[in-house]
Design a protein that fits this description.
The protein is built from 5 helices and 16 strands. The chain is α+β, with helices and mostly antiparallel strands. It has 2 domains: about 100 residues, Sandwich (Immunoglobulin-like); about 150 residues, C8orf32 fold, CATH 3.10.620.30. The strands form 4 sheets. Strands 3-6-1-16-11 form a 5-stranded antiparallel beta sheet, with no helix packed on it. Strands 7-13-12-10-14 form a 5-stranded antiparallel beta sheet. Strands 4-5-2-15 form a 4-stranded antiparallel beta sheet, with no helix packed on it.
C-alpha cells in the first residue's frame, strides 16, 4: 500500500484574453476498491467554478467559467490518495451502465483492416492470460514516441504508424477487446514513476470485464497491470469521455499551454 501525493498544474497563457469560456475538469479521483482519497482540492486562477457533478460514468466533474479578459488561466489540483496493490483487479462494482455499452466501438477505437488482421485469432476469452498476451503483443508492435499522435488520433491510425503514447496503446488494446465482443473501457489517471517526480501528462490504461474477476486493468504502454503506483481518476469509452480538460473558449487567437504533474510517495 502506498500513500501518494499529487500536484497537477495546467496553465493557459492567452495573447488576448477570451471573451468567454466553459471548461469541464476531470482531475478529481474517487475512492473505490483499490484506492481511498484522503483529501483533494481544486484551485483556479482566471476562472470560477460554477458547479460540480457526477457524470454518467461516475466521474467527478467540475464545470468552470473562464473570466473574460483572462491572460493566464491556471487550473491546479492537489491531494493525497492511499492506493492498494490488487494486481489490477478492481473487481465487480455497482453501476447502472450495462456491460454491452463497453463493447461498442467509438470513432477513436473503431478498428480498421490493420487491427482486424492483428486481432484475428487472439485467444481473448475469460482467461486473464490472453489479455496479458495481447498487452505484450501490442507493446512489442509499437514504439512509445511523443509528438507522433494527438488526442484525435484513432487506434487504427496509431497502429499503422507503429508508434504513439499511452493513449494510443490503450485505444488499440480496447479496439482488440471489443472486436471479440468483450467489455473494455478507457481509464485516465496518475502514475508514480521511478526517478521522475515531474511529468508532462496524465497516464492512460484499459480495463476489461472478465467473468469471475470483474474489471481488471492493463497498462499496455508499460506491459503491466496497475498496482499501488496508479491512481484512477476517470473512465469512459475512450479518451474523449475521460479527458482531464474539455470545453471551449471564445475570442482566443493564440494560446500557450504548459502542464506540470508532480507525484511522490509519502
Amino acid at each position: 500500500m502506498k500513500n501518494l501525493n499529487v500536484t497537477h498544474k495546467t496553465k493557459y497563457s492567452f495573447e488576448a484574453g477570451p471573451l468567454s469560456g466553459l471548461q469541464q475538469i476531470k482531475k478529481t479521483p474517487y475512492s473505490d476498491a483499490c484506492q481511498t482519497v484522503l483529501n483533494w482540492s481544486l484551485l483556479l486562477t482566471g476562472a470560477k467554478e460554477e458547479l460540480t457533478f457526477t457524470d454518467s460514468f461516475n466521474n467527478n466533474v467540475s464545470l468552470i467559467r473562464v473570466e473574460p479578459g483572462t491572460k493566464d488561466l491556471v487550473i491546479e489540483c492537489e491531494g493525497h490518495v492511499e492506493v492498494m496493490d490488487k494486481s489490477g483487479v478492481l473487481g465487480y462494482e455497482a453501476s447502472k451502465i450495462p456491460l454491452w455499452l463497453w463493447t461498442e466501438h467509438t470513432n477513436l477505437t473503431k478498428p480498421g483492416s490493420g487491427i482486424r488482421k492483428f486481432a484475428k485469432g487472439l485467444p481473448l476469452k475469460d482467461d486473464i492470460g490472453g489479455f496479458h498476451k495481447l498487452m505484450e503483443l501490442i507493446g512489442g508492435s509499437l514504439d512509445f514516441q511523443k509528438n507522433i499522435t494527438n488526442v484525435k488520433t484513432t487506434a487504427e491510425e496509431a497502429f499503422k504508424k507503429g508508434s504513439g503514447v499511452c493513449q494510443d496503446f490503450t485505444n488499440i488494446f480496447i479496439a482488440c477487446c471489443r472486436l471479440h465482443g468483450l467489455p473494455a473501457r478507457y481509464v485516465s489517471g496518475f502514475l508514480l514513476l521511478e526517478n521522475k517526480q515531474i511529468q508532462e501528462a496524465m497516464h492512460a490504461w484499459a480495463e476489461v470485464f472478465i467473468e469471475g474477476l470483474g474489471w481488471v486493468g492493463f497498462d499496455t504502454a508499460n506491459k503491466i497491470s496497475p498496482d499501488d503506483r496508479y491512481i484512477r481518476v476517470a473512465i469512459g469509452r475512450d479518451y474523449s469521455d475521460a479527458a482531464p480538460i474539455k470545453g471551449v473558449t471564445l475570442g482566443v487567437q493564440h494560446e500557450c499551454l504548459s502542464v506540470s504533474i508532480m507525484i511522490s510517495e509519502q
